[in-house]
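Before a colleague's protein record goes any further, I have to sign it off. I want your independent view on whether this chain really folds as the tokens say. The record follows directly below this note.
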Amino acid sequence: MKAAIVKEKGTIPVLGQFNSPVAAGGEILIQVSAAALSRVSKFRSMGMHYSSSVNFPIVAGLDGVGTLEDGTRVYFAMPAAPYGSLAEQTIVNAKLTVRLPDGIDDLTAAAIANPAMSSWAALVFRAGFKPGQTVLINGATGASGSLAVQIAKGLGAKKIIVTGRNETKLQALEADEAIAFDMTADNGKTLFEHALMPVVAEGVDVILDYLWGDSALTIMSALAKTNTDRATRFVTIGTSSGQEDIQLPSSLLRSSTIELVGSGDKSVSKADMLSAVKGVFEMAAEGKLQIAIQQYAIEEIEEAWNAPLTPRPVVKVR
């Protein structure tokens, strides 16, 4: 069968022929229609993620959309190695599939699942979000962050604050407050903190952070300096700033109502992740979630692999 194959660790996939899969106990065969590319999917496929397979060659791709033998359209995740989602067929654990509602097409479902799933899971399962709460999204101009704005709004947030490095993109989001920053400037941290103080003065219930680094620390510092006694659940989701480590003083947490938690593979169960995907698809089918897509044929896999993640590259397999 036609597939995007990673032949050695650290290399990008190339188009080739791979043996067709045969489903074993608990597995189902899927005719793949589309698969999107995300940062985690690419790193995992190339053997550069902690969950990567160590045996090559493999078929690239972490998740996708396809049909079962009876024609049912499904989203699927984590195909059984050495198979991935970027092939004409794959096999997955039957429990790792979600049926698609009628109101969403295959390309949109493939594109929106991964970035929106992480935002939904962080907001609902890790932050315990309730309608009427205030949400701050740090790194809101990326794919996941911009979807988080739409999800928070769709779930009933009272107020949405967005922060990030691109002021033009921030202003284009449907948020109540937008604050841009430049952490590379000499007084960037101070300016950002001063801009945040009046905005967070009434309190923030949930913070979804996709950047980490200096901007995350500055947000926590601004919150700690307010007089609010409102509890804030700070959820770290990613490190798009490139800063894995920060110097977080113990006193900052002791002198504030900030609760610091993470959201990811080990902190959210597979069942909750699939529940998040189901919620995302239902919201998208109602027209409340949109994502920009750049479509590629599987024959263009190398071009798709090297493309920016925004708009989301989606490989149409069949």
Notes: DSSP finds nine helices and 16 strands in the chain. Residues 79 and 92 are 4 Å apart (CA to CA). The mean pLDDT is 95.
